[in-house]
Amino acid sequence: MALRYAVLAALLEGEASGYELSKRFDVSVANFWSATPQQLYRELDQLEARGLVAAEVVEQERRPNKRVFTLTEAGHEALYAFTAAPARPAAMRDELVVKVQAVDAGDVAAVRAAVAERLQHARAKLALYEQIRKSMLAGGSEEAFLAAAERVGPYLTLLGGRVYERSNIRWCELVLRVLADREHSRRPALSRRATSE
Amino acid sequence: MALRYAVLAALLEGEASGYELSKRFDVSVANFWSATPQQLYRELDQLEARGLVAAEVVEQERRPNKRVFTLTEAGHEALYAFTAAPARPAAMRDELVVKVQAVDAGDVAAVRAAVAERLQHARAKLALYEQIRKSMLAGGSEEAFLAAAERVGPYLTLLGGRVYERSNIRWCELVLRVLADREHSRRPALSRRATSE
DNA sequence: ATATTCATGTAACAAGTTACATGATTAG
DNA sequence: CTAATCATGTAACTTGTTACATGAATAT
User: Fold this and answer.
1) For chain B, which has fewer Cβ within 10 Å, the N-terminal or C-terminal residue?
2) Which residues of chain A, if any, have pLDDT below 50?
């Protein structure tokens, strides 16, 4: 269900083609929802069929034609209704955390590498968010921005991404520290079955 | 794929029935993966068919019989291989964030209420994590625990949950502050169409 | 020359959710 | 006596992922 509204919310930022939306929803950028292009094309078709978005084919000269989508009145209403409905708690699902949970029975070096990679990624994302924030504030203060802005939602979710990545960074650093200490203090490479049987 | 390994990782903590696992994976508690009982029963059947877990029917007197699952050698190997494989980045998917993103075109009061609820939930979870942490440390220091513990994975994911809920709390408080300020400074209830058309 | 970007889609599959069904036991 | 806990499952459905396919334009 929520993908539907994420798409409608994304269209609040302005009309877009499926391709353009797929950028806004790209895992490596998205700070409020992520989805693959395939999900978006399917969802957009359904939204159009239900009349929540309107598609207009824009012919391009040197590019394939594109279908540009806009929110309809019904789409606005559906989005409004969504914000008014109760939200269910977010489910925790992160592969990396499973690896860390299983690290004692796993390949410690590989897990450390995966955490290090996540750390790098989190830092890159944080830097990106800071940049976006700067350009949103356009030289002014946060207070000024919030007082003047028509829309605060995108700014708030941006700050959410910032807070999230920061905590990611803290956790990754902590995990790396602990695993490094472990490797120093424990002589034998931990066998898979060190603790069991 | 990852649910499979999350189940195997959970069984590192000791044998369990489907029902018992469903507690460990309960959304309101899970700090490393969440899943519904139905997913678990299905996954356990598959894992058993592949020989990654072994089921033993335990007959109980005043309770329905239960199937208790344990990791097999093949299960250990599969889990090890999983930790060694590259992880893909976690996708961002949280309904509440979509509501916040759309708050300017939505029911502000309802969104505030939803954020407040999340805040409460995050505080409760944080308190739970602190309690679990305390009982894991068993009166000693973190250093002592890490030096002595056979398994550090569960402790690290617990800290992950702690860091995550803390950032959740910070964000929720921030969002509530901003939305409250907004309501004070803006006289007219924001119509859904205030900025468009 | 080759890779990347723009632009859309189909098909098959894997994962996750919801509703329903059963039935005994224990705690309030 | 009612609700919660223990314990397992089926079926239908919705979401999300992966692989494949097409094809031109631009940047390296």
Assistant:
1) C
2) 189-197
Give the pLDDT score at A16. Answer: 94
CB-based contact A41:A18 (threshold 8 Å): yes
Question: CA-nearest residue of chain A to B8?
Answer: A102
Token reading at A158: 């941006």
State the Cα torsion A17-A5-A47-B193 to the nearest 10°. -80
Q: How far is A84 from chain B (nearest CA, A)?
A: 5
- Which of B30, B77, B156 is opposite residue A92, by nearest beta carbon? B30
DSSP chain A: -HHHHHHHHHHTT--EEHHHHHHHT-TTT-SSB---HHHHHHHHHHHHHTTSEEEEEE--SSS--EEEEEE-HHHHHHHHHHHHSPPPPPP-B-HHHHHHHTGGGS-HHHHHHHHHHHHHHHHHHHHHHHHHHHHHHTTS-HHHHHHH-S--HHHHHHHHHHHHHHHHHHHHHHHHHHHHHHHHH--SPPPTTSS--
Q: Are A195 and B151 in contact (CB under 8 A)?
A: yes
Angle of helix B108-137 versus helix A73-84 axis, rounded to 10 = 40
Q: Is the pLDDT of residue B63 over 80?
A: no
Q: Report the alpha-carbon distance of residue A46 to residue A9 in Å, rounded.
A: 16
pLDDT of amino acid B88: 84
B33-38: average pLDDT? 93
Query: Which of A157, A169, A183 to mutate to probe the B interface, most B CBs <10 Å?
Result: A157
Tell me how crowded residue A160 is: count the other CB atoms within 10 A of its CB: 26
Q: pTM, whole model, 2 decimals?
A: 0.91
CA B194/CA B197 separation, integer angstroms: 8
Our measurement of CA B75 to C1' D3, in angstroms, reads 39
How many residues in chain A?
Answer: 197
The pLDDT value recorded for residue A190 is: 47
Instruction: Give the pLDDT confidence score for residue A43 in this predicted structure.
Output: 94
| pLDDT at residue B194, rounded to an integer | 43
d(CA A4, CA A53): 11
| B87-114 b/e (C-beta count within 10 Å ≥ 16 → b) | bebbebbbbbbbbbbbbbbbbbebbbeb
**Nearest-CA distance from B123 to chain A in Å?**
13
